[in-house]
Amino acid sequence: MARIVMKFGGTSVADLDRIKNVARHVKREVDAGHEVAVVVSAMSGKTNELVGWVQGTPKVVGANSPFYDAREYDAVVASGEQVTCGLLAIALQAMDINARSWQGWQIPIRTDNAHGAARILEIDGADIIKRMGEGQVAVVAGFQGLGPDNRIATLGRGGSDTSAVAIAAAVKADRCDIYTDVDGVYTTDPRIVPQARRLKKVAFEEMLEMASLGAKVLQVRSVELAMVHKVRTFVRSSFEDPDAPGMGDLLNPPGTLICDEDEIVEQEVVTGIAYAKDEAQISLRRLADRPGVSAAIFGPLAESHINVDMIVQNISEDGSKTDMTFTVPSGDVEKAIKVLGENKEKIGYDVVQNESGLVKVSVIGIGMRSHAGVAATAFKALAEKGINIKAITTSEIKISILIDGPYAELAVRTLHSCYGLDKN
Ligand code: ASP
Ligand code: MG
């Protein structure tokens, strides 16, 4: 017997038939004798609709958000999950399974006060554990918890992944299964590279890079949480026949296991290629080369909530002037230029230049730590295709390369095959 948390995303609960199908997946694990908690998202499209309704209401004067009262935003958008967890409990009961729904506040899942993007602080798993022990399935609304003000708080878009991992940690589950509309994590986006392979295992750190670099399988925060609490997390498909052979395999269900690197015996040097579109590059020319300049640039950008990614500074030739280049999401360029303009005197630069429509491709693998020449392989392969590199950053397990947008697909394909990731 094991204790399993099963999470189903929006497409998996998109209508009543799919909810019934989810119930069959749950029944399979219950029939195998496992203790089960289920976490659900809202039906697909529902949260967007709810957010749209809130944004369509008049601005609230004096609220802590410029557009609307974030606490009421949460009251509205959390309702999608309330519906699906009730419906799934009913579908389970119809199959003679003892089940009940749980709202975040009923458990409770305690969060901080950041309405709309709250962090989970604490989950009291005692009640759920007790009832699971008595054979009851807990069907939990994802995406929501209870803030210190005793009001509903939501965890940010895609947050029900994080709910699931947090609950798995709280009830000390053996496994957290994230059911979604893809059947696992691939070496790269299969829509771009048909030869992409499904990975059997990915280390937490690699998945963190893949998730934050645009492989949109899991919310980044959920992977962070899984890494901290060492929650073994499977990404798998809800669209496979719930009763197909192997689906109930306890150790190796079909999908990708995200786990501690110690569990990965045959480590490849490179695990995957990720890409992030719509990057923009901003360069400040002829900056004074003195202490405090970086702080003068990036402090105000951070205060304006602009997410700066790659940062490259030149070594100055004469020790007096230098250049600084960094990237931001394309949508933030205008705002960033404005902030830099407002701080021009304090920073002390000559001109600011920018270019949008760039793409960042990244080569990821924990095997890089112990292998030399991984970056050189990428540069050579890209050069052979005539792809120009605009900027490079590296970490222990990642090489990121900034290129012109139109070359994105060619670059991803080239890198995928140069590290031998193509299937067959
Ligand atoms: N329903 C929420 C959203 O669409 C949370 C989730 O699905 O993970 O963002
Ligand atoms: Mg999701």
Automatic annotation (TrEMBL):
The keyword Flavoprotein does not apply. InterPro entries: AceGlu_kinase-like_sf, ACT-like_dom_sf, ACT_Aspartokinase, ACT_dom, AKii-LysC-BS, Asp/Glu/Uridylate_kinase, Asp_kin_monofn, Asp_kinase. Keywords: Amino-acid biosynthesis, ATP-binding, Kinase, Lysine biosynthesis, Nucleotide-binding, Transferase. Pfam families: AA_kinase (PF00696), ACT_9 (PF22468). The keyword Transport does not apply. Substrate binds at T47, E81. One of its GO terms (cellular component) is cytosol. Pathway: Amino-acid biosynthesis; L-methionine biosynthesis via de novo pathway; L-homoserine from L-aspartate: step 1/3; Amino-acid biosynthesis; L-threonine biosynthesis; L-threonine from L-aspartate: step 1/5; Amino-acid biosynthesis; L-lysine biosynthesis via DAP pathway; (S)-tetrahydrodipicolinate from L-aspartate: step 1/4. It comes from the Bacteria. It catalyses: L-aspartate + ATP = 4-phospho-L-aspartate + ADP. One of its GO terms (molecular function) is ATP binding. ATP binds at K7, F8, G9, G10, T180, D181, Y186, R191, K216, V217. Residues 282-357, 363-424 form the ACT domain. Belongs to the aspartokinase family. This is Aspartokinase. It comes from Rhizobium azibense. The lineage of its organism: Bacteria, Pseudomonadati, Pseudomonadota, Alphaproteobacteria, Hyphomicrobiales.
